[in-house]
Structures are given as C-alpha cells and as structure tokens.
C-alpha cells in the first residue's frame, strides 16, 4: 500500500515550452521516455513528484499501524508469521519510496517532519480502526487490492526512480492481497459467528476502500497536469470501476454481501453500477476528523521520538569508530 | 547544526552466482556493516540475492546529463563497430 489520489484528473495538456530545456523535457515526456534524477525538469514537476511520492511513502509507514495492532493476537503461528512478513514488506515499501523522493533533492528528515507536523497527508484509509481479526482479511483483500489497481499504472510513471520503486512494490503486493483473501475465505467457510465477523469487516471497509481511488473525475478542478506529465495514467473513476468489477465476483465467491443495495450489473455498459459515494465523509477523514487520525499520528510521532536516542547513539558510535580507524591508519 | 540523518548508501545485489551485481536501491545506515545488514533485510527477503555490495552514495562520480550529446553521440555514426554492418556472402553460413 498505498497511494491515494487526491488530485483530480482532467484533460492532459502540456504547457508550451519557453526554454530549450523545457522543450527537451516535453519531447522526452511525449516520447514516453523516462526522466532521471539529474535531468532537467520543471520545478512544478519536481514538486508534484515530491508531494505524491512522500505521501505514498507515509501511507506505507502509517499503514503498518492498523495491522501491527493484530500481530500479537493473530489466531495461529502461521497467520502471525504471514502478518509479520506483510507488515515488514510495508516498511520496506516506505523505504523504497522515501529513497525515490530523496533523489529529487528532499531529505528524509524533511519528509518525516512534514508528516509529523501534520502538513503531509497519508492515505485516509488508515484512519479507520481494526476492530476484529477479520479486518486483517478485509484490509489485505480490499485495501491492498485497491492499492494494486492504483499502483500498476505507476510502474510506467515518467520518473525513473518512482517507476522502479513501484515495480518492486507491485511484485510484493500480490501476496498481501492473497493472504487477506485467504483469511476471508477461512472465516466465510467457518462457523456462523466467523462468517458474521467477515461480513461485518466487509461492511465497514467497503465504502472507505471505494473512496481510496479519490474524488470523481467530474469534480476536476486541476489541469490534468499529472496526466500530461505521465505521472498519473488512469483516471480515478476508471480505476475505481476496474476495482469494483474485479471485486464483486470475489465477494460472491466468499458468500458475502457488498453493503450497497444499488450495486447492479449494467449489461449495456459492461460494468457494475454502484450507489452514491459519501464524499463528505471522505473529505472529513482527509481533513483530520476520521476515527483514528489523531491516534495514528500520535503513535507515529511517539515511535520516532522514542527512537531518537538510538539513531543518535548509533551515529555517534560509527563516527567514533571511523575516527579511530583513520587514526590507526595514519 | 550537526547532521543527524544517517549517511546514504547505494545497494548492489548479485541475484545468483555467475551474474553481475546490479543496483537495486539505496538506504540510510551509520556505517558499511549496518548498511549490509539492512540491505539484507530490505532487498533480499525473497531470496533475491546471494551477495551484497554497499557503496557510500557520495563516493559515486556520475557523468553529467548535460554532456550527454558530447559523451555519447559520437558513437551513433560508427555502425562499422557492429557485426551487422558486414554483409557476408551466402556461402558463409556461420561467422
Ligand atoms: Fe501491501
Ligand atoms: Fe505496500
């Protein structure tokens, strides 16, 4: 996990170039070639990438919290080992992405500071609580599933380091979704209480996951600059539709009901139609008023501050060892 | 102000015996030993490697992208450096 689209897609347009460097950059984008860290790029392109990649990195890192909550209470050793491996992967995803953003000239400390001060966003899905074990299933199946839909087009993103990080991440995500579905499968084939637990998790996670793809295309206020730059390749609504079409049959297979009375196959469109999405709730949670916003950020800040002495001591020790080794060599 | 951020390292992995080490990404670590340990945890969790190199990022000297034309374009018109430049008589089957 997990990017969250907060930008609104529009018609792709590249502003006409005013300098030779910009013309070369535009030609490169138009030819679908990659931009690498030391190549010339417009300041706005750099800024957009820093914002998106760091948000994405923060989401991976904050995303460890709701699942970490269940590691000690996993129902078996097997499930515990799987969940630990998944959470460890998410930490790694955060690292790949921070490293990609650092190639754009922003430091790790600056990015963390922006997160901890509340200036930088992370995916709002993690501001919902994980109340039962079935939530581990729902998150893997739906949240990681939605993330995969979002992230596959990013593997072709115009910025080389971001695209390479995404390829690595996508390879690892598929295990996340499958282990989640596997939990849901076990619960839905279990006792009545277990099946009810799986249904309850689906009820709570469905709409927040549908919202993960970001605001509807028709509310477009931005210029579609991200699309023009080859950063965003598929619109929010198209990705959302793709996710719904893929997920409905999976829910049927589980014998679970998607909590949308208006969900219906539309033979004419060849897609599922869905009921209205509560965008007020989405913006409330993005704006900090979700059930767990304060708790997540406070936990993150506390972990960082409590670890400060370890980071400082390790650095001081390494410097001392380095100085001694140099002295011996002299 | 004293720098508190750990130094940056570039990580290279040999995916299997007989292949080159390839750049896979970067990470922060206090020293080389820790960088190798962390590279193992981050980049070889699924048996992606049998050997790891770490190099301080600041030790790398790169060619300047602005010199791309002078550096690399002179090679573009030297087609005779490629075997396909030479048309062989049909009678020569393998060369
Ligand atoms: Fe994941
Ligand atoms: Fe992830």
Structure description:
- The complex is a heterodimer of chains A (330) and B (95).
- Chain A is mostly helical and 330 residues long.
- Chain A is 63% helix and 2% strand.
- Chain A has a two-stranded antiparallel sheet with strand order 1-2.
- Chain A starts with 19 loop residues before the first helix and ends with a helix.
- Chain B has a three-stranded antiparallel beta sheet with strand order 2-1-3, covered by helices on one side.
- In chain B, a hairpin with a 6-residue loop joins strand 1 and strand 2 (21-28).
- Helix content of chain B is 18%, strand content 22%.
- The interface between A and B is medium-sized, with 27 and 20 residues.
- The structure holds fe (ii) ion (2 copies).
- One fe (ii) ion (FE2) is lined by residues 1, 60, 90, 93, 169, 173 of chain A.
Give the topology, please.
The complex is a heterodimer of chains A (330) and B (95).
Chain A (H helix, E strand, L loop, with lengths): L19 H11 L12 H20 L1 H5 L8 H26 L5 H9 L17 H18 L8 H29 L3 H20 L13 H4 L7 H19 L9 E3 L4 E3 L5 H11 L3 H14 L1 H22 L1
Antiparallel strand pairs in A: 1-2
Chain B lengths: L7 E7 L6 E8 L3 H12 L7 E6 L11 H5 L23
Bound molecules: fe (ii) ion (FE2) (2 copies).
């Amino acid at each position: 996990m997990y990017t969250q689209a907060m930008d609104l897609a529009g018609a792709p347009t590249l502003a006409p170039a005013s300098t030779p460097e910009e013309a070369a950059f535009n030609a490169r984008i138009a030819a679908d070639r990659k931009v690498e860290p030391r190549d010339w790029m417009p300041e706005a392109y750099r800024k957009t990438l820093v914002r998106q990649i760091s948000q994405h990195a923060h989401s991976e890192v904050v995303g460890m919290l709701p699942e970490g909550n269940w590691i000690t209470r996993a129902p078996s050793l097997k499930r515990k080992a799987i969940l630990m491996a998944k959470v460890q992967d998410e930490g790694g995803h955060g690292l790949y992405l921070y490293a990609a953003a650092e190639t754009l000239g922003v430091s790790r400390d600056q990015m963390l500071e922006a997160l901890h001060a509340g200036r930088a966003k992370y995916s709002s899905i993690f501001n919902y609580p994980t109340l039962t074990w079935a939530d581990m299933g729902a998150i893997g199946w739906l949240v990681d599933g939605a993330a995969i839909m979002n992230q596959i087009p990013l593997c072709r993103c115009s910025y080389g380091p971001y695209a390479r990080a995404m390829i690595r991440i996508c390879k690892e995500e598929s295990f996340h979704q499958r282990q989640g579905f596997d939990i849901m499968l076990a619960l839905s084939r279990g006792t009545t209480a277990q099946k009810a637990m799986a249904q309850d998790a689906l009820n709570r996670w469905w709409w927040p996951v549908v919202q993960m793809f970001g605001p509807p295309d028709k509310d477009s206020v931005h210029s579609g600059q991200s699309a023009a730059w080859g950063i965003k390749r598929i619109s929010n609504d198209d990705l959302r539709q793709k996710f719904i079409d893929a997920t409905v049959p999976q829910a049927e297979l589980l014998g679970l009901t998607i909590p949308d009375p208006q969900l219906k196959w539309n033979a004419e469109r060849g897609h599922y139609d869905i009921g209205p999405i509560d965008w007020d709730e989405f913006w409330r949670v993005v704006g900090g008023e979700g059930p767990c916003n304060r708790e997540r950020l406070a936990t993150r800040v506390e972990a960082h501050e409590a670890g400060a002495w370890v980071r400082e001591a390790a650095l001081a020790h390494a410097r001392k060892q380095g100085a001694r080794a140099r002295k011996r060599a002299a | 102000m004293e720098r508190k951020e750990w130094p940056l390292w570039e990580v290279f992995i040999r995916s299997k015996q007989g292949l080159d080490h390839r750049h896979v990404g970067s990470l922060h670590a206090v020293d080389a030993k820790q960088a190798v340990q962390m590279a193992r945890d981050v980049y070889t969790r699924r048996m992606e490697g049998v050997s790891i190199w770490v190099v301080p990022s600041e030790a790398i000297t790169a060619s300047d992208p602005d010199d791309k034309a002078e550096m690399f374009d002179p090679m573009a018109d030297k087609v005779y450096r490629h075997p396909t430049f030479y048309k062989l008589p049909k009678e020569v089957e393998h060369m």
